[in-house]
Design brief:
The structure is a homodimer. The first copy, chain A, is of the alpha/beta class. Chain A contains 14 helices and 9 strands.
Chain lengths: ~290, ~290
């Protein structure tokens, strides 16, 4: 298949690489230069998003945030200027669900399909082609793109219509942040009360308090292994999506707001490059007590 | 073994029953009357906590909260007045970790051992002898009582010294409440953004957002099955322990405080008898949007 791939950063580079490895004809565009590693795989570099759209029947976008997707799609020399009727746009960036519905409608008006397909699993998931992919959009378009998704990920779900993929990703990031916060409060409490947090974590595994986060991030908090993993500054971006969309949707997310403030407090100490489990540092500062003390 | 059992309520009755079934000589005291079902099992009813302590080498306490344990132990005709040197007191109630250390020291001063051994698993766990038991106290006393614990529970951990069992239970209740809150915020967001919360829950299971709470309580929120389960008014008591002990320990638990307020908001509508997953009703009220809408 002829595939335009826009955004060859930390995530996009291995993802585009998998598509080329399996024989797809990939036309890559990046704001800065496309890595040589991709050129060696036979990927063609194009000079604009418009050109990527002209040459391809499927255009994949993997860029940082909502304004970047808008620029790629509808900016000067953007996808909308080059796309052919019947083509499919797949946005795999993590962006606003509300804006996504607007973007999808504008692409539909050009006689094209749109899928929002954000991922979780990070750089390692991208490299190992083991990403979780949460998809919103038309079922026929989903069926056509599924074999391409399967070259990049393993757990691929069509959640619903346009925007629902992004909504699912935001829901995921809310739960992950708030469960990290929950484990942080519990371990700070346990430690300050004089218990061994490692034994408390062990006793809680298997019961109703058990979670992937207690297992993985609880252990990180106890062992002080805060090298990422998933960086606080990326999770701040995702919680900003949650909070700004919540305001637009007229709902209140009180603990998401607090979790964002705790991330902000860690970032204020210059530590926004640490793994998101380091949110516990802000709780410890409130308590003046590290969990491993 | 001669066992005093103080507190034969919803939890204590099946627990004491298991001990009698396995041939232990049980002396039961309850503030109101001891159920006939226990008398039929050959359990002797005594007229005070003091008498239960006089007749037994092991005294088990299962009462609602910290002041009740204090009254049972050190009130008029309490355990401390009747207990013999070398006996063991086991408090299986869920009470304050800080106060527990004081109670344990006073019992130790009488030449006796003390174990704090709160449980999770609720009425069903008590009836099926499948409780999780989190124990704090002396290892020798723990080893002596372990065969008795095994008649009431399955997952039995000595977490550390006195108070650490109660600390572990509080940590458990913090994580459970905050994970319910996290799943609630995520599902309200997803629903209000127009996605199907059941499909979102499905897509998130297996990833980093996965937890026992997403599985069980997430399903309850979607299907509106709020019959308990574990009642909000009991979880309010546990979060009050968390917050009052946090204040005593000089630590800050911001999301636990919010979760308690959300429970309070549900209780304000007269719904404190519902399952704790009904915390989502307060989030929905903030959003004016039920997750199954």
């Amino acid at each position: 298949m002829k595939i335009g791939f826009i955004g060859t950063g930390i995530m996009g580079t291995p993802m585009a690489g998998h598509l080329a490895d399996k024989g797809h004809e990939v036309y890559a565009y990046n704001r800065s230069s496309v890595p040589d590693s991709l050129k060696k795989k036979g990927i063609s570099v194009v000079s604009s998003c418009k050109e990527a759209a002209e040459k391809a029947e499927l255009v994949i976008i993997m860029v940082p945030d909502t304004p970047h997707v808008e620029e790629v799609l509808f900016g000067k020399n953007g996808v909308a200027e080059g796309i052919q009727k019947g083509s499919i746009v797949v946005d795999m960036s993590s962006i606003s669900p509300v804006e996504t519905k607007v973007f999808a409608a504008r692409i539909n008006d050009l006689g094209c399909s749109y899928l929002d397909a954000p991922v979780s699993g990070g750089q390692i998931g991208a490299e190992n082609a083991s990403l979780t992919i949460m998809v919103g959009g038309d079922p026929n378009a989903f069926d056509k793109v599924l074999p391409v998704f399967q070259l990049m990920g393993q757990n691929i779900t069509r959640v619903g219509g346009n925007g629902d993929g992004q909504t699912c990703k935001v829901a995921n990031q809310i739960i992950v942040a708030l469960t990290i916060e929950a484990v942080g409060e519990a371990l700070v409490f346990a430690s300050k009360a004089g218990a061994d947090p490692a034994k408390v974590r062990q006793a809680l595994m298997g019961g109703f308090a058990s979670s992937k986060i207690l297992e993985v991030h609880g252990e990180r908090m106890i062992n002080r292994t805060f090298d990422p993993g998933f960086r606080i500054n990326l999770h701040q971006k995702d919680l900003n999506l949650a909070l700004s969309n919540a305001r637009a949707l007229q709902i209140s997310l009180p603990n998401t707001a607090t979790a964002q403030e705790l991330f902000n407090a860690v970032a204020a100490q210059g530590d926004s490059g640490l793994d998101h489990s380091a949110m516990v540092l802000a709780l410890e500062k409130l308590a003046s007590h590290p969990v491993n003390d």
